[in-house]
Protein: NAD-dependent protein deacetylase
Organism: Paenibacillus forsythiae
Amino acid sequence: MDSLKTLASWIQASSRIVFFGGAGTSTESGIPDFRSAAGLYLSEKHSPYPPEQMLSHSFFMSKPEIFFDFYRGKMLHPDAEANGAHRLLARLEREGRLSAVVTQNIDGLHQKAGSRRVLELHGSVHRNHCMGCSRYYGLDAVIGSEETVPRCPDCGGIIKPDVVLYEEELDHKVLTDSVQAIAGADLLIIGGTSLTVQPAASLIQYFQGKHTALLNGEPTSYDSRADLIITDRIGWAMDRISELLG
């Protein structure tokens, strides 16, 4: 509890907080992460194709039917609800303490909780576009498609999720905005990420502020550089911190 009180005191003393998060932020919302023992990559290891391959650009282009079958079954969680981590971050933004959420997640739960400045490094399942005519679609176009591969009713082109697949580059503006937000932060809270996915994980090196707090259930390569480490479940921990803040 002392570590939670420490982080609460740092939050109270800060006005430019940035949260950098990964898949572990949403596990308490029922969305599996990727690399933990119960994560997507290990649970799917007996599949004919590794998840990393199915989530690559080349696989999407060559085997769209298999891609969308996996994507719908494993990557989409439209009924998931925000947890304590998402709620506290949205509260801190409303109070003027948090300047940005930089997330590797594609689930949209930060926005669902009320956060407005969310920099989505890997895109979002809620944005989709036709590869033929560039028309944009919401998530319903993918979930509600009667065909395995969703197609644009205007031109027949494949509707591609605006998520960054392996072999694809991150959006330059999102990267630039993320670097600027982290560089200007006075408190960096890192949560629910193993800090192994590049180039996203390298962004935290731009932090020049006072304190770094790391909330993750498993050790990371950044542990020795963090000022505070909390290994409790992040949603539970953030709920306790919200209570401490009053």
In short: The longest helix spans residues 64-75. The CA atoms of residues 60 and 220 lie 31 Å apart. The two ends are 16 Å apart (CA to CA). The longest strand covers residues 123-130.
